[in-house]
Amino acid sequence: MKFTASQIAEILEGKIVGDPEAEVSELAKIEEGTKGALTFLSNPKYNSYIYTTKASITIVNEDFKPEQPIDTTLIKVKDAYKAFSKLLEYYNQVKLNKSGIEQPSFISEEVEYGDDIYLGAFSYVGKKVKIGNNVKIYPNVYLGDNVKIGDNVILFSGVKIYSDCIVGSNCVIHSGVIVGADGFGFSPEEDGKYAKVPQIGNVIIEDDVEIGAGTTIDRATLGSTIIRKGVKLDNQIQIAHNVEIGEHTAIAAQTGIAGSTKIGKNCLIGGQVGIAGHLYIGDRVRIQAQSGIGRNVKDGEALQGSPAIGYSDYNKSYIHFKNLPKTVDTIEQLRKKIENNG
Fold it and tell me: Which residues are catalytic?
């Protein structure tokens, strides 16, 4: 796809300084810009690059005044960073704007789907599935029986959504995500073996949720595993059966949440955090990376460590832990002095 400076300026409501017919077909950092690339300058520490960049078009703040000759065409806007972000969003929408049903793909009986659907090749849609308007389903996606998908949803290649699960509107689910696999439910037997406990619940994902690649969300034993509105999940997260994650909580990669734990609203959870089962995590909780949570957490707490303790307590304790060899040497010297003076 090619865009001219005039087209970009119209989208951004910007002013052109240079060639209005300059064309771009790719995006680049200002220091790596080549002919045909669009870039931006918002941080003054990168100013020097605007005089050497080979990018055809550069978005700049409206108060930018070059101190040397430049080759790139400028588009002046109020905020170059926000304008470039807006352009990225527009570009992404154009790039992902596919439609139609590719073959081979399989659509079962009694499936309902809305307008402007895209169904990629080698996808499978089970019985009585309901799909909303403007849904993009990329190749090799599996939708089990009775699945419901809202409007404006993107399911990238390789997503698997098991039967009876529900996805709200405006969700993005990245490649390799598995929604609705069985929870880890097994009952120990007298002979040392384990009997599987049937997992007959589902997963409910509310509106405006984004789920990163390779994340797994298990179906409930009974009832639902619930991902509330606006939740953002990174790659490779494990969410067990009957977990509930509150609105607008963000969780970083490789975190694991055990069964039946409830997490509140607006929490921030770092990478590689482990949270035990049957706990309650309050609203606005901050958990630092690699922490282990084995107790209930009150609203607004900030935690770090394994097992986790208060964030400020952890930092104070770490100073002593780091200096432990010196402290031991000091104690040993004092002991010897006491013995010698005794």
Answer: 241
Cα torsion 25, 31, 34, 36: sign: positive
Give pLDDT tens digits for 66-102.
989 999 999 999 999 999 988 888 887 777 888 899 9
Which of 182, 163, 315, 290 minimizes the C-alpha distance to 242? 182
Which segments of 209-277 are extended strands (E)? Answer: 210-211, 216-218, 224-227, 232-233, 238-239, 244-245, 250-251, 256-257, 262-263, 268-269, 274-275
Q: What is the pLDDT of residues 314-342, one digit of tens each?
A: 888 878 778 888 888 888 888 888 888 76
- Other CB atoms within 10 A of residue 44 CB: 9
Rg (CA), the chain: 27
Distance, in Å, from the CA atom of 187 to the CA atom of 171, rounded to the nearest integer, reads: 35
How much is the pTM?
Answer: 0.82
Mark out the alpha helices in the chain (DSSP H runs): 5-12, 80-95, 311-322, 324-341
d(C-alpha 341, C-alpha 163), whole Å: 79
Q: Considering only CA atoms, which of 200, 222, 150, 210 is closest in space to residue 177?
A: 210
| Spatial distance between the Cα atoms of 22 and 8, rounded to a whole number of angstroms | 10
Q: Three-state SS string across 164-205, please?
A: CCEECCCCEECCCCEEEECCCCEEECCCCCEEECCCCCEEEE
**Dihedrals φ, ψ of 217, to 5°?**
-125, 115
pLDDT in tens, 169-200: 999 999 999 999 999 999 999 999 999 999 99
Which amino acid is present at 180?
Answer: G
C-beta separation of 181 from 218 below 8 A: yes
